[in-house]
Automatic annotation (TrEMBL):
This is DNA polymerase III subunit epsilon. The lineage of its organism: Bacteria, Pseudomonadati, Pseudomonadota, Betaproteobacteria, Burkholderiales. It holds the Pfam family RNase_T. Its cofactor is Mn(2+); Mg(2+). It comes from Taylorella asinigenitalis (strain MCE3). It is an enzyme of class 2 (transferase). It catalyses: DNA(n) + a 2'-deoxyribonucleoside 5'-triphosphate = DNA(n+1) + diphosphate.
Length: 238
């Protein structure tokens, strides 16, 4: 499955007040793996950023003055996003801005060419993240890098940086299962009477939880195996 973790930076908080996108960052996942096929574009919004927004992203009017308009890159963005499921933190914000930009240049809206979306804030809650405030920084620190310090590691937000952090968080929220199972190759050739073989997996790459079995559980398991052996009249090698 193709997924795209997406983030934007904008001139302000409300697209309904005429604020515009100034940066788009997209990180591609294919079957849960980072591909390196990312998309990163700065835009000239033809207006200044609000002071509060400027303090967040640091992208000045002067820096953006020679960048392309969103309309100039709309077709490229649509082509890149087409058919992908979007992963966005606080999806309503970014999707609202993107749909406004597409509408302003006469292009179709997101729903017509993407394969749905996941809001990572809701997804984190659904997967047991019970914090009252679920910021991307907190998810990254709790799930990816416990040494992460927002005040030191990133004083300025960037769309590609945030999209990359989001991709790593999303992979962790899925417990790396896609990475694990995609590396296991099983080939069955029963029609030729050949044995089923499976590829080896380097489990050292995965953060696997070790679950110890109690004496009571071992005893119950042994009794269960003994019952199966008696019923089948065969030796059970489990």
């Amino acid at each position: 499955m193709r997924q795209v973790c997406l983030d934007t930076e904008t001139t302000g908080l409300d697209y309904k007040s005429g604020h515009r996108i100034i940066e788009l960052g997209c990180v591609e996942l294919l079957d849960g793996k980072l591909t390196g096929n990312d998309l990163h574009i700065y835009f000239n919004p033809e207006r200044d950023s609000d002071p509060d927004a400027l303090r967040v992203h640091g992208l000045t009017t002067e820096f953006l003055s020679d960048k392309p308009l969103f309309a100039d890159k709309a077709d490229q963005i649509i082509e890149y996003l087409s058919g992908a499921q979007l992963i966005i933190h606080n999806a309503a914000f970014d999707m609202g801005f993107l749909n406004t930009e597409f509408s302003l240049c006469g292009k179709p809206l997101l729903d017509s060419f993407i394969n749905g979306f996941i809001d990572s804030r809701n997804y984190a809650r659904e997967n047991g993240f019970a914090s009252a405030v679920i910021t991307l920084d907190k998810l990254y620190k709790d799930l990816v890098d416990e040494t992460f310090d927002k005040s030191k590691d990133r004083k300025i937000h960037g769309a590609l940086l945030d999209a990359t952090m989001l991709a790593k968080v999303f992979i962790k929220l899925n417990s790396g299962q896609n990475d694990l199972f995609s590396e296991v190759q099983v080939e069955a050739k029963q029609e030729h009477g050949e044995a089923v073989t499976s590829g080896s997996v380097d489990l050292s790459k995965f953060d696997l939880k070790l679950v110890k079995v109690s004496e009571e559980e071992m005893k119950a398991h042994s009794e269960y195996i003994a019952t199966l052996a008696a019923e089948s009249k065969k030796e059970i090698n489990w």
